[in-house]
Amino acid sequence: MIEKEVGKYLDKDGFLSDAIEEFERRPQQIAMAEAVGRAFDDKHHLIVEAGTGTGKSLAYLIPAILWAVQHNKKVVVSTYSKALQEQLLYHDIPLIHEKLKIPFRYALCLGHENYLSLRRLKRASQAGLFATVEEDEQMAAIFDWVGETQNGTKGDLPFEPLPSVWEDVGRQKDLCLGKNCETYSTCYYFKERKRWFSAHLLIVNHHLFFANVASNGAVLPRFDAVIFDEAQNIEESATSFLGLKISNSYLYYFLDRLYHSRTRKGLLSRIEHDYVLHLRNLVGVVRKAVETFFTCIVEEYGGKDRVLRLYKPIAIDNSIYFPMKELHESLKNFEGMVQSEEDRVEITSAANRCIEFNNAIPAFLNQHLDEYVYWLEITEKKRFNRVVLQGVPVNAAGELQEQVFSKIDRVVLTSATLTTHRGFEFIQERIGFKPQEQSILDSPFDYPSQALLYISGDLPEPSEEMEKYVSAMARRCGELVEISQGRTFILFTSYALMDQVYDRLQHLSSKLSLLRQGEIPTGQMIRRFKETPSVIFGTNSFWQGVDIPGDALKSVIITKLPFDVPSEPLTEARIEDLHRRSIDPFSHYQIPRAIIQMKQGFGRLIRKQSDTGVVSILDSRMIHRGYGKQFLDSLPSCEVVEDLVQVKNFFSKLEAKVLMEE
Q: Nearest CA to 79 among 415, 486, 331, 358?
């Protein structure tokens, strides 16, 4: 029984205590590992909230690996953030593999588009596809890199490749020649897939997991159990895969890759055949049809930046359908005329894409999919307004239950933030998960001595005059940053608010490094933050998955309660759906979602036993509104203050303690 074996590894005198010098026995970690072991032994579903510091990664990895090896099974571990995935791959799993001497095989699974195609790289270099110096330089750099890389993945490149470059050299499933390819024996993707099929443990992200669901299991090898870490993100990850999305920019990109009349580049520029001229002309006809269609949308709904929900089918003629249909038929005719297998595969792929477009656009225009919400996004660009048409299901619970939870015998959901009001009802209802066992394990951290919670009841509420609100909030952020001497995350719910506060705090840049999300890659921001006293201004991606233990981070400022914008199309549709079912959406949906996000933000501060610091919530609704207590009750228990003097005193005590220890 796996449940009985985990203690050998995690208990006071277990194998981990021998392998790790600073190992500490954590009752919560053992309880979680035993629960995961039971789920695997008894073939049932489990949900676990494991507070920060529990060591949940080892608590699920050890029983999962023991079970997989013992029964020669395969377990998928799915994460939301890249940071957690890297922690598993480069720290936790190697530790188990090397220190505990458990003979298991594991592999990281990435989407096929992440891998370099050696055949396409060679073809792109011969065809001279690129129009700019930067593209040519990147192509040369990729050629040099091929001699160094082990896995051939985009993430292994020492630079971020331009989309236009990677599109021409990266693997594309529908352009793959399989065993007929001259580079099949050295193909990075197929070499990795062989490892997937022989592995006991597969590490994926939620995106790839639901891509596998959407493709009826064609992406990943068959597996026997799945562990979802960061499970609070399952609903949103699944929803994106169940919907449809199409944009004018993607259609133009598709047509340019077939043939661009100005640059005279593209697939149809490389093939010599009398029929090619006809196809080039058709590409031009489709391009004009696309321009006409999206111009009509912009004229109907306006050309300014906006997100607009659609409540009824669009009364705009689908001028794309028949030209696209003719292009598809002509490409299918052309398949049998080309001599090269490589060219034939690309022609077939393009023809299939035409069908996809002609299915997606009418589906959006007619809005015939049940219980979907539809909207369009318009963004002003220099060359043309970018228009995105999107439709997604209002609820993913039914599909998740049918496609995932009912088909897999052993499913474990875990995170540090899954409960509201000390229960799992919210998350279970949203995703249709009905576990046989559930467990709430509190953090082993001593929050009363490690952390202070500051709430500002004297600031204007966000609903008040915007200028007054932003100015007051920015001043308070500045005061808190001065007290903590930088070492601060300032978390926002929107880019607009972040930019306004960032501009107002520029006077701090003479003493501190101010890092705004979007200006440099996240990884670089984190490295700079750790190297010198800094302030990070971040939105959604900094609320979760970012781990900075130690003295670099001493202060987390939450500027606003993280409610979803109620007018955002999907949120609005979910609220309406709850109203129709006579359920109060504010208490049963909006507050629980905001509480889970708030818990994530709070969790950035204390990452290990020696961490200390202050979390500040600059939203006075925490004090003045009745629901503020629900947020407060959901957070770890620590001293709560409303006076900046007490924040100063807290930091003074920390500094005095450091001096005494020195």
A: 415
- Cα distances from 119 to residues 70, 171, 187, 570, in angstroms, run 40, 9, 9, 42
In the three-class reduction of DSSP (H, G, I as helix; E, B as strand; rest coil), residue 570 is classed as helix
Q: Which amino acid type is present at position 350?
A: A
What is the chain's alpha carbon radius of gyration, rounded to the nearest angstrom?
27
What pLDDT digit, counting tens, does each position of 155-197 carry? 888 888 888 788 888 887 777 777 778 887 888 888 888 999 9
Class of domain 447-661: alpha beta
Q: Where are the domains of the chain?
A: 2-105+199-224+408-441, 113-186, 244-393, 447-661
Most distant CA pair in the chain: distance in Å?
85
3-state secondary structure (DSSP) of residue 168: helix
Q: Is residue 279 scored above 70 in pLDDT?
A: yes
* Whether residue 215 has pLDDT greater than 60: yes
In eight-state DSSP terms, residue 90 is I
How far, in Å, CA of 659 to CA of 507, rounded? 30
Task: Report how far residue 435's alpha carbon sits from residue 413's, in angstroms, rounded to the nearest whole number.
Answer: 9
φ, ψ at 615 (rounded to 5°): -105, 130
pLDDT in tens, 434-462: 999 999 999 999 999 999 999 999 999 98
Q: Terminal CA-to-CA distance of the chain, rounded, Å?
A: 49
Phi/psi for 283 (5° steps) reads -60, -40
Task: Give phi and psi for 289, each to the nearest 5.
Answer: -65, -40
Cα separation, 572 vs 392, in Å, equals 13
Distance of CA 399 to the CA centre of its chain: 20
pLDDT band of 380, cuts 50, 70, 90: confident
Asked whether residue 58 carries a pLDDT value surpassing 90, the answer given is yes
CA atoms of 115 and 307, how far apart (whole Å): 34
Q: Do the Cβ atoms of 570 and 455 come closer than 8 Å?
A: no
pLDDT tens digits, one per residue of 335-368:
889 888 878 888 998 999 999 999 999 999 999 8
pLDDT band at 491, cuts 50/70/90? very high
Tell me which amino acid residue 99 is. Answer: K
| Strands 244-247 vs 225-228: parallel, antiparallel or unpaired | unpaired
Distance separating alpha carbons of residues 288 and 268, to the nearest angstrom: 18
Domains 2-105+199-224+408-441 and 447-661 share a fold: yes
| φ, ψ of residue 7 in degrees (nearest 5) | -60, -30
What b/e string do you get for 313-348 counting C-beta neighbours within 10 Å, with b at 16 or more? ebeeebbbbebbeebbebbbebeeebeeebbbbbbb
Closest CA to 187 of 126, 141, 121: 121
**Among candidate residues 297, 319, 299, 323, the one with its CA nearest the CA of residue 310:** 297
Can you give the pLDDT at residue 20?
A: 73
Residue 74 CA, chain-centre distance (Å), reads 24
- CB contact at 8 A, 598 and 562: yes
* Structure-token pair, residue 120: 């396409």
Beta-carbon count within 10 A of 272 CB: 8
Report yes or no: 236 and 379 within 8 Å, Cβ to Cβ: no
Strands of 488-491's sheet, edge to edge? Answer: 513-516, 534-538, 488-491, 555-558, 613-617, 451-455, 639-641
The pLDDT, as a whole number, for residue 17 is 75
Exposed (0-12), middle (13-18) or buried (19+): which is 82, by Cβ within 10 Å?
A: middle
**CA 210 – CA 22 distance, rounded (Å):** 38
Q: Which CATH class is domain 2-105+199-224+408-441?
A: alpha beta
| pLDDT tens for each residue of 286-338 | 999 999 999 999 999 887 889 999 999 988 999 999 999 999 999 999 988 98
Distance CA 489, CA 542 (A): 8
Q: For the ranges 125-134, 221-230, 251-260, 563-572, which has the lowest average pLDDT?
A: 125-134
